[in-house]
Structure formats: C-alpha cells, structure tokens
Amino acid sequence: MPFHLHEAVPWGRNLEEYDEIFAIHAIPRGARILDVAAGPASFAAEANADGWRVTAADPLYVSSAAAISERFQAARTLVMEQINRNLSGYRWDRIGTPRRLEARRVETMRAFLKDFERHGGDRYVEASLPKLPFADAAFDVALCSHFLFLNEATQGRAFTLASVKEMLRVAREIRLFPLVRMDGQSSRLLPQILASVARQGHSATIEAVDWSFQIGATHRLVVRRPAIAA
Ligand SMILES: C[S@@+](CC[C@H](N)C(=O)[O-])C[C@H]1O[C@@H](n2cnc3c(N)ncnc32)[C@H](O)[C@@H]1O
Fold it and tell me: What predicted TM-score, i.e. pTM, was given to this entire model?
C-alpha cells in the first residue's frame, strides 16, 4: 500500500537536507528567506546561525513547545509505521535504515524546539497557506518543502494555485519540493501551476536536486518574478 497520511504532519528536515533540496549554499548569506510549512525543521535555527535571515511559518507555531513535541511524537509513530510498510518507496543508500531516519528526525526536532523556545514569534510565525501575514516582496526567496504537491490530492487545485500565488506575492523567488504526491506519483497539478505562473509573467524552471530519498522526488520547481526595470 502506498504511503498515505490524511493531513500534513510535523516531520522536519535539517539544513543539510534543505541544502540538498534547495541549493541553499547558492543563496547569498544575508538574504531574507521564508520557510513556508516549516514545521519542526531545524533549517531556520541552523541557517540563521550560518548567516541567512530565515523566518519560519507554520500553523503549528500557535502551540507551545511542549504541545509541538507531543504532536511530533504522535506523527513519529504514524510516519514510521507507513515508512516501514513501504520501504521500497525510498532509497536507503544515504540515510541507511528507518531507525537512522527516525533518529535524525528526533535530533532535528530537538534543535528546532530549542530555537523555537529561544526566538518564539520573532522567528517562528503562525501562518497558514493560502494566506501569509507578510508584506509584498518581504523576502528574497520563499521555500516550501514537503507540503504543497505532496498533499495535493487532499488539498486540491484551488488551494495549491492560491498558495503558489501567495508565496510569489511575499517573495521574489519561490522554490518548491517535491513535485510528486505522497503516493510517489507525479503531481497532476504541476502543468496547471506552470501555465498559471507563465500567465502571470513569471519564469519557471524545474531543476534536479542533490537530495535522494523518496522515489520519484528528484526535482524542485523554481519560479522567479520578473526583474523590475530600473
Ligand atoms: C511534513 S511537514 C514539512 C516540514 C518542513 N518543511 C520540512 O520539509 O522538513 C508539513 C508541515 O505543513 C504544515 N501545514 C499544515 N497545513 C498548513 C498550511 N495550510 N499552511 C502552511 N503549513 C501547513 C504542518 O503543520 C507541518 O508542519
């Protein structure tokens, strides 16, 4: 049975994984980055320590650190059950074993919680797509990892289109990953998203990633707003 969850659960990645997914190293230090649907990722904590100016946004941040930790523990059981039932849906050469994956996610969540308790709402903003509480072009780059296309079957076309448009309102460039759904099938909405952003005058590219885990999750979508003439 393919991997399936009814809703997006708190399950987070670290800076090294974000770098493999989004080529963070190629973004100049000091750039303003928004991580949308950031969940318990330690990306914001680690990247801020390394010189980028990262804000994380997720509905989860309405909760206390203790409540987020509890939700993570519940998600951990669910996700690990699904992964163990669907081992062939993933490449294990980099991560090793499901146990090592679980340990990595726990370590990431701990780093996130420490930073969340320290920086609270200054860095971790409660926000739910398809609306974001930020000014137009407030960020240089907005990222969205493991949320939009992954959950498109439950979230639907209108939500996904509106979310992409909203991310492009608050950032000059957006990077989205993966371009497959939770069941590993290619996104059915991607062609419509590409047509929609082209109609809005943005340029889109599909780029290979260095990250390799979910089978089929090999590319990211990068969309850039047109440069404003001087
Ligand atoms: C699988 S986690 C991804 C975390 C992180 N981006 C990463 O790749 O490590 C998905 C996140 O989406 C968040 N989420 C759920 N509904 C959302 C919405 N409407 N807008 C933004 N984020 C949402 C969940 O709270 C959860 O933390």
Answer: 0.95
